[in-house]
UniProtKB/TrEMBL annotation:
UniProt keywords, alphabetically: Isomerase, NAD
Family membership noted in the UniProt record: Belongs to the NAD(P)-dependent epimerase/dehydratase family.
Protein name: NAD(P)-binding Rossmann-fold superfamily protein
Cited SUPFAM superfamilies: NAD(P)-binding Rossmann-fold domains (SSF51735)
Polar residues biased stretches: 16-34
Region feature (Disordered): 16-42
Record-linked InterPro entries: NAD(P)-bd_dom_sf
PANTHER family (UniProt xref): EPIMERASE-RELATED
Species annotation: Paspalum notatum var. saurae
Length: 354
């Protein structure tokens, strides 16, 4: 397994790059398998992994976090800004492909630093000072909770050496299509001024592209404890449920139109696609992440009810108006990157035929 990771210090520096120069055009024409029941797969398995050496990291002072070690930067070292569910799966997959690399995780608080350390991720706090740059950076922290999201991305870019890859995970909400029509990588982006949410993402994407990084626009992420457990700190400590279906199940009924099209991608597939893009070491490109099997809200919840994997049943959608969605298709991304999803569709993930 992975060799012990240790650094003398790794701090995150304020960006020194020039101010953002305004939005640029980011794109251009539009037009589950079930896992074995005997034992859930370990997404972030640590069994048999060598103990991880802790490091003194910026202003993070978690118990047992200070050791001495080498501060040499390896060619496969990775900084994960926002090591949540997606970031941790990226870390697990990246480590398997690059044994012995060091992985750093930048967070907004120290709440989960001990978990990250147990996973082989060296934690630090946002806003620390930087002494070294790393060859690979993935930014998957959400804009929520950030007072200056573009500024946070500039900081991350300033900690990238420029030698490997920089990837920002964005959203398919930026594609300007809302009539349940087909939409691919060439579909134009929504204009600046459409909404504060899309404005922030568009500005951040431009920061990334100007820095030479790439953007991965992801469809709705999902993962379900009906099939998958997150393995933390050597024990099965908790189950995770993420995705639109989880929110709707909790509601029971929803005043939304049932024919609105939803696009999805499993967390594991989003992580594997992100890594495949990073390994290409491309510059200033936008890619699309989805499973190519768009479903209506009604189709998603019908599948959930049929699967028998959930304790509750969804009662139904009661709305008959409101905006429609789009049918995302990413054949160009798949062909260029050489990637295919592990879970071809949400229904197959649940163990149902497509």
């Amino acid at each position: 397994m992975r060799a012990a990771a240790a650094v003398a210090s790794f701090h995150l520096a304020p960006a020194t790059s020039q101010p953002h120069r305004g939005a640029s055009t980011t794109s251009s024409s539009c037009s589950l398998k079930p896992t074995p029941t005997a034992r859930p797969p370990r997404l972030l398995s640590l069994a048999g992994r060598a103990p991880v050496a802790r490091a003194s990291l910026g202003i993070s002072h978690d118990k047992g976090s200070e050791v001495s070690g080498s501060n040499v930067v390896g060619q496969n070292d990775l900084l994960i800004v926002g090591p949540g569910v997606l970031g941790r799966i990226v870390a697990e997959k990246w480590q398997k492909e690059h044994p012995g690399c060091k992985m750093y995780g930048q967070t907004a608080s120290k709440n989960h630093h001990s978990e990250l350390t147990d996973l082989g991720i060296i934690p630090s706090l946002k806003g620390s000072a930087n002494s070294q740059k790393v060859p690979h950076v993935i930014f998957c922290a959400p804009p929520s909770g950030s007072d200056d999201y573009p500024g946070d991305v500039r900081v991350a870019a300033s900690n990238w050496s420029g030698e490997g890859s920089f990837l920002f995970t964005s959203s398919t909400a930026l594609y300007d299509c809302s009539d349940n029509g087909m939409c691919n990588e060439d579909c134009p982006s929504v204009p600046i001024g459409r909404s504060p949410r899309t404005d922030v993402l568009l500005k951040v994407e431009n920061v990334v592209l100007e820095a030479g990084g790439c953007v991965l626009r992801l469809a709705g992420l999902y993962i379900s404890s009906a099939n998958v457990y997150l393995f933390i700190s050597f024990t099965w400590t908790y189950k995770i449920d993420r995705g639109a279906h989880v929110f709707w199940l909790r509601k029971g009924t929803l005043d939304s139109r049932p024919d609105h099209i939803i696009n999805q991608i499993h967390y594991e597939d989003a992580a594997s696609l992100a890594i495949a893009i990073m390994k290409k070491r491309l510059r200033s490109r936008i890619f699309l992440g989805c499973d190519n099997k768009p479903l209506s809200r009604q189709e998603i919840m019908d599948a959930v009810n049929r699967s028998g994997k959930f304790e509750t049943k969804f009662e139904g959608f009661t709305g008959n108006d409101g905006p429609l969605g789009k049918r995302m298709e990413n054949s160009k991304t798949r062909a260029e990157i050489g990637w295919e999803p592990k879970y071809p569709s949400f229904t197959e993930f649940l163990g149902l035929s497509n």
